[in-house]
Amino acid sequence: MSTAAVPMIEGWFTTGDQPALLGRRCLVCGTTAFPPTLRSCPNPGCSSDDLEEVALSRRGRIWSYTDARYQPPPPYVPSTDPYEPFAIAAVELAEERLVVLGQVAAGYGLDDLKVGGSAELVVETLEVRDGIERLIWRWRPVTETQEVAQ
Amino acid sequence: MTNHDVAVLGVGMHEWGKWGRPFVTYGVAAARAALADAGVEWSDVGFIAGGETVRNGYGGFVAGSTFAQALGWNGARVATCYAACASGSAALEAARTRILAGLCDVALVVGADTTPKGFLAPTSGERWDDPDWLRFRLVGATNPTYFGLYARRRMDRFGATSADFAQVKVKNARHGLHNPNARYRKEVTAEEIAASPVVADPLHLLDICATSDGGAAIVVSSMDYARRIGQANPVRIRAISTVTPSYPNTVLDLPLLSTDAAGVVPVPALSYRASIAAAAYEESGLGPEDMSLAEVYDLSTALELDWYEDIGLCGEGEAEKLLADGATTIGGRVPVNTSGGLASFGEAVPAQALAQVCEITWQLRGAAGPRQVEGASAGITANQGLFGHGSSVLLTK
What we know:
Order of helices and strands of chain A: EEEEEEEEEH
Structural class of chain A: mainly beta
Number of helices of chain A: 1
Distance between the termini of chain B: 19 Å
Helix content of chain B: 25-40%
Order of helices and strands of chain B: EHEHHEHEHHHHEEEHEHEHHHHEE
CATH superfamily of the largest domain in chain B: Thiolase/Chalcone synthase
Number of domains of chain A: 2
Oligomer: heterodimer
Number of helices of chain B: 14
CATH architecture of the largest domain in chain B: 3-Layer(aba) Sandwich
CATH architecture of the largest domain in chain A: Beta Barrel
Strand content of chain B: 15-25%
Shape of chain B: globular
CATH topology of the largest domain in chain B: Peroxisomal Thiolase, Chain A, domain 1
Number of strands of chain B: 11
Radius of gyration of chain A: 17 Å
Strand order of the largest sheet of chain A: 5-6-7-9-8
Distance between the termini of chain A: 37 Å
Structural class of chain B: alpha/beta
CATH class of the largest domain in chain B: Alpha Beta
């Protein structure tokens, strides 16, 4: 069965080899924000509604992390039956210095995470519905050795 | 300096539990108890404010008038306030400002809730523009997810341990033991907490507060009115803070998937949580050193430790030591959550901020029974909830 793949939510991130979250940047004061549904500059000293789409840093530092040992209630849709716990990380983006929450990439768990550690954005399948893969952003921990190698 | 005091004439609660009855029954019971405690007739109340409860359909969305009708229409002015966990304080602030404006002598504030089992979940349906819905749909982030994030930061930044967190629950369970309004009145051991399942690493089930049914109510009046009805020295509200965050808020708050950016505008000196209590201290002219006790929002054990620092009881990273030294236990320098806290109550959202004020009031009257703080003269409450809401109420004798 061939499957198409579409973002879980339109306009929040790009896909491909170098996926990135999409934010909004104020053309007047330069403030950046996520998610991109924002209509006005969030800086209280700026009254601009002139915002441009901008791809955000793909790397950041782990602000904190946890996991979900019990199945969250709807509208969360479990991808496995029985339910399998997954890790969650909040990462401060390197350049914009804003923190974004996301699940941790498949195959990684609590032991791979530490506050202050590096993480990189990836896009993976959150669920398959009606034969269509629904994609979501996730955080993949990056070890120091991997960083040096790059 | 202008006097902004209002009198707490009466407080009342319906005990916390899990019965699933209509929230109005808890609110009415609490309201009647508060009116009786105040010695005020419902017919004399000029203003009623209700903390809104959002999961209970039409009646909950219009809490102020729902309570007014249940008590019997009396023509009072009305307000319904939503501020998540701070809803009760927002309603109390509406009453206070109306009294201080001279538009009302005596007001009744009521909050009550009945909660579903398990995780608090968002409103159903396809709600792609609702951040509270999106966090479940896109990430599976429950309330304990956020509590887990905060707890992990204490561990990695300050070296806190699960054993430290457990001692908060042990203390609060002991405090709540003799509180007739608490849902859980049983000692809990560190071993029991460690043996309970992990919900959101590093937090165990017994580190996280339950969701409960309950109701709380407060009768407030002008100081003149209190004197006229013979209450010469009532407990008084010296300050109410209901501040919103200052940009950029760089702490990930419920129910959001992201924070503000720290890149362009400088980060404020105080975090949002710290700014909530700071505004109450500033308004009252008192400081943390003047407090005899505090009621803080222990949604998790680890979060109570964050609050010690955020309300100025100790410096950053010092909360574990403050707890271990016994300073926040009844008998210590500044007991915290003498009521037993959320650990003993579970959360009944629109009632909880008012329940905190009820506890401080009983303590300042010297009427807290076995959990009394000797010589209590001033106390502060603090809480934070979804969507940039939080509150702090400061009371003195």
